[in-house]
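Researcher: First entry.
Model:
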Amino acid sequence: MFSKHSKQVKSTKIDRSSLNVVVHSTKSTKAKTNKPVQSHKKYTVKASQVNIHARMLSKNALSVVEKLNRHGYEAYIVGGCLRDLLLGKTPKDFDVATNARPEQVQAIFQRRCRLVGRRFRLAHIMFGRDIIEVATFRASHEVNHSEQQAKQNQDGMILRDNVYGTLEQDAQRRDFTVNALYYSPRDNSIYDFYHGIDDLKAGKLRLIGDPVTRYQEDPVRMLRAIRFMAKLDMFLDKASETPIVELAPLLKNIPPARLFDESLKLLQTGSGEKTYYLLRQYGLFEQLFPALIPYFTEQGDSLAERMIIHSLKSTDERIADNLRLNSAFLFATFFWYPLREKVDILKNEGGLNNHDAYALASNEIMDLLCHSLAVPRRHTGVIREIWLLQLQLLKRSGRFPERTMEQPKFRAAYDLLAMRAEIEGGESIELAKWWHEYQFSNAEQRIALLKEQDKNAPKPKKRYYRKRSTKKD
């Protein structure tokens, strides 16, 4: 039902004409030290032929590769950074792959190196704030290994992945063909094992190996497929696309903390709206946000759905304008209408006042959110504050407006009010307009706004109660 929506989203076209190069078989090259084993399935191309030059690569990443080479190890710049450069994009980071074990990498770089990860051991080489991630070549799990090296659950998901191998085996373990690219500064060549350059040229996203098995090994690959489709304006090949709807429930096996990180990558990288439609289309959105599904309609036009789309559009615009993002604000907007519905239930059925109903409803909605995504406490506190400030924004007399504006999250709360006004209309439009004027007015103008507000909405008369007389014994 959502495929029709995905067509409505405008996507940024990527010029792939620069990838139209002749790819030469590695059979014609001479074997040298630190070169991959030659095979008919592997191809190499001079980096200059696809407009990749050493000056475009991270100096720190190149220094890591060169130092590993000097110590007798194979090492290459690998993966997404090459993919992005081939598409004319600026890479977010640069990764390195090597046949050196993590402990050997640490012995070479010593204090600069920090070993991280249990599921798959990695080495982080630190150059100030710049961190180069170094991964050891991985091998398949077909050969029996101890549980300290390799472990899978009954659904086929990899729980531990410290099985080391060769360059060939590492390429086979990569997820998508466009990520199985290796750059060697020694001969300025790119090793393209699974025709990733051809796939980039065609705009095709294709899994390496059997898609069902690869998704079972790591269900997050389904989310990565969606992210690359939206971000890189690519399409998923039929074999990789078909199993997703059926295997989507496997995401429930992923730790909520990891899903939280993945949700930010999906929704806060500049293509959030398009990503949302794709997630709905492939049945993945409900795996990330199951608590929102009861608030969706067949037509896709409920208040909750309209708020999600509006919020993601705004996020995409902020990223395009290089403005800062507040992750807590995104989740506050997503769950605003479920919160409102819960508040109304507590007020009508429980007889609670507005403030108590908001506090209790916030706890219940937050529990639902954190059950599927482990939202850090630093964000949950901000989300609650943004929600409760919606009550404060209703108070427009005396010193209430001044005190409300002094709150640290006032601006985020106002932005939520402005979004509500566009979606709900009615009284929220007048309220948002008033606060907009109040923010950008001087002291005299604010006093005039308060007087006008008091005139239009007079204070309720105070009730006076007679003191109860105490009877004397």
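Researcher: Second entry.
Model:
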Amino acid sequence: MIKRRYMRTRQLKPGMIIDQVIKDPTGRNLVVQGSAIDDYIISSLLKLGIMSVYIREGSADPDDPDAILSPKAAAMVKQLRTDDRSKVTLSDSVRQRVSTGVQYIFNNTSSKELTETTNQIADSLMEAINENDAIAVDISSLKTSDEYTFKHSVDVATISMILAKQMKLPDNEIHDIGVSGLLHDIGKTMIPNEILNKPGRLTDDEFNIMKKHSVYGYNMLKDRKDLNNSILMGVLQHHERIDGTGYPLGFDAPKICQFAKILSVADVYDALVTKRPYKDALSQRDAVEMLMSMTNQLDIGVMRAFMSSMILYPVDSIVQLSNGEKARVVKNSEYYILRPTVVGVDSGRVYNLGNDLKCASIIIL
């Protein structure tokens, strides 16, 4: 824990951390807050007649977001902090139930209980959304599995359900798009592991095989009477693009079902921010910017729902700004998910990244 102590200058020792800004007679900074002092600085303070200063002792508790704030920053955070919009949260028991269920689905694709298990997982996600009337999602907080295929399926299902809620779809369709999201990649169980987990770029032939997974998934599920057509079309079409450049059928916007349009946005985003054997994860900022560049391929209505639903930088999280300063997020703005309001943890300066033109050149790294 960090403590702030007022101490006589003559008692200072080299290496101590100063917890205030010290200026010389001309107004220039002699010592920056947070700096380690040395014998020269101690001597300079005495020459300036500064007989006592604040020092910082101890270290920050990484679990305490207040620990690293300067007094000025703490005051600004207290004044400006606004809770995030209600977001999906999964209890440990629900997270375990969801993880176990998804693993069962992918390991037992021909089981008679597949649909029942999938519905139960969608029910759990629906309950989590309805429990606090969630209208947003922070994917980094879900952590349902360490295995990519399982985690990706839950992420896509959860994002899609929130997008569907934002788009005012009825509850039964929100539930069903969760089912479609959970099953959208089930056809990958038919893809050879050497292609699925290849730690490098796929050849054209390998990619053509990979592209068959949506058809495989559809064929695996189409005879199940308890899965409706919207769910099946979501599985089949989630890689179609509204400009006709997708697969497997090259459909354009009028021929692509609504579920697939929603799933495709969730699928692309989650894939971009996830590390895989053949690629590094993109930052949230880079992933959103890439998604925004795909407006000719992804449905604009779904994109608007995405921009109003995702929480990339939760309130109280610490971020690094492009001007070199660390800052704490105090408020998120709907539709400006890359540009929240933040407070510099040392300076206490407020950066309204979404609306203040003076902050236009500052981004979160």
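Model: Note on the second entry: Residues 148-166 form the longest helix (19 residues).
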